[in-house]
Amino acid sequence: MSAFANILLGGVFHAAVLFLVAAGLQLVFGVQKILNLACGSFYALGAYFGITFTSFAAKYGMPVWMLLPALVFAGVILGAIGPVIERLLRTVYDRDESFQLLLTFSLLLMFQDILRFIWGANPRSIDLNYLVYGKVVFSDFSVPVYNLLVIAAAIIIAAGLGLFLQRTNYGRVLRATAENRSMAEALGVDVRGVYATVFTVGTMLGTVAGALVVPTAAASLDIAVELVVEAFAVVVIGGLGSMPGALAGAVVVGLIHALSIAIYPELELLATYLIVIGVLLLRPAGLFGRPVT
Amino acid sequence: MSSRAAVLLAIFGVLALAVVPWLAPPFYASLLISFFAYAIALLGFNLLFGYGGLLSFGHAMFLGFGAYGTAIVSGVLGIKSFEVALIAVVIGAAIAAAPIGWLCVRYTGIFFGMLTLAFGMLFHSFLFKFYYVTGGDSGMRIPRMNILGLELAQYNKISFLAGPFYYYCLALLVIAGLIMWRIVHSPFGLHLRALRDNPRKAEYLGVRVREFRLVAFVISSVFAAAGGAILGLRIGLADPELVYWTHSGQLVFMTVLGGFTNFFGPILGALAFTLLQDQLQSLTQYWRFVLGAILALLVIGFPTGIAGLIRNYNWRRVAAT
């Protein structure tokens, strides 16, 4: 039983991180109709920058218990690269989707070397001990509180995003733009501004996810390309452009990941892709998406 | 482009390639082997992308089929004839591509891309995880093979690649080019372009949309497998990196670099990419950045690629000749 609970919590932690990245992907796809392959780069960038930022802050006397807020902050300020990249993507908004995909692929290639240039080719990990928050000890297994805090943070961000999109005026404007761009424009919505905002928020979700995960796992150059395919699996299973879909997809992928590692490690990724293919074939709109025409 | 000019240009290109082993050091000749491999694979890829309008993001899977198939034929079964391996992987790829294609061509656009990506990654994780079958991340070795039944034992590996095997691959590229030229200029090629430009109208006019797309998918996989066999023999290894999704992205990159709107574009793209990557790698460890920047520039400014720059033509007319 304890082993099972352990696997379950590991899966939920993984799902929480995947949800953040996938939510960024969904937001951008939903409004801008661009599938952003560079989301993995944002994640990796967040991870590396999180390490640098927190070790810098610790040197100037940041108490260790500030680790989590500092990492979130590091992710949020990285969102500043969002508008710059959005400006680049603006050149291909009315082009074929294969060109949009290729442009984000070129960003992924470039970021790979930017990361290598700044942080080197060797994996990096954080110096501060994330066990500062302690552990929750159950009868025969324990969980670091940090992991639980990250899960909580993801839930708070999910709820915040949901409230923002459903209840605020700007959220309605975003949804209207996603629904019908030209009609929104005709009604006086500043579509350019909306796109810049959406892309920046999408970037931030990726960078925050990367920063949050880095205390538990080393940052390496490979995580960018590895995460892209996992985040894709999440959005395909959940349904492209759907926020509840990102949540459901992340839980499915996170749990499958954890369960297959526990039961039959060879199936780890295989199982995920099999489910992706199954979903695409049987229900291409995903669990929560709208039917494709 | 008129057919006559194209034929003249192609003949000139083949002659120019034929003198390379005499003029350039053996390193460049063996480097061009991977150009031949990619060029053959991209001829097939562009039937799907340029002519059929279907962007596959998992096409490296079939390169992997070719390389691993060759490894099985030569390394496991001990058959040393490269022709046997080539025929085996071509048939194997066609058999594997038929059901995969049948499932994938139900969609176009982003969904087609993601399905092919998922199949590619499925194959990659199989290769990567089932190491007792596939050798895992160290891959499967491909021992040296004979061509046309000739042992050629007097050549060492590099002079084999730069000599007999170079001309062998050049001949294969010419044959593949002629076959593909016939395919795209046949009624089948015309049908395929019709469904790219307006699938609904084409269907109304009686084009069997899914069947035609499926046939294009299978043909393109066969070409990719042949390219993969050459690539594998050159490196002497079939490894999972060949199948990883970034390698599929690289195939798309080469095609766009050369120009997907032109028959010869992918061949130019394969040549330019192979030489560019080699030069950049010797100049800087940050060659990916330069390649990424070039790709971004192409996508934004020159979507018709090198071929489009050479012939600044209305591309629909070019593709239609």
Order of strands in the sheet with most strands of chain A: 1-2
Counted by DSSP, the helix tally of chain B is: 16
Percent helix among the residues of chain B?
over 70%
Q: What's the order of the H and E elements of chain A? A: HHHHHEEHHHHHHH
* Strand residue content of chain A: under 5%
* Count of DSSP strands of chain B: 2
**Overall outline of chain B:** globular
Structural category of chain A? mainly alpha
Identify low-pLDDT runs of chain B.
none
User: What is the gyration radius of chain A calculated from CA atoms?
Assistant: 19 Å
- The top-level CATH class of chain A is Mainly Alpha
Task: State the CATH topology of chain A.
Answer: ABC transporter involved in vitamin B12 uptake, BtuC
**Kindly state the mean pLDDT of chain A as a whole number?**
88
- Quaternary organisation of the protein chains: heterodimer
The number of helices of chain A is 12
Number of strands of chain A: 2
Most extensive chain interface and residues per partner: A-B, 44 and 42 residues
SSE ordering of chain B: HHHHHHEHHHHHEHHHHH
What coarse outline of chain A follows from CA principal-axis ratios? globular
Fraction of helical residues of chain A: over 70%
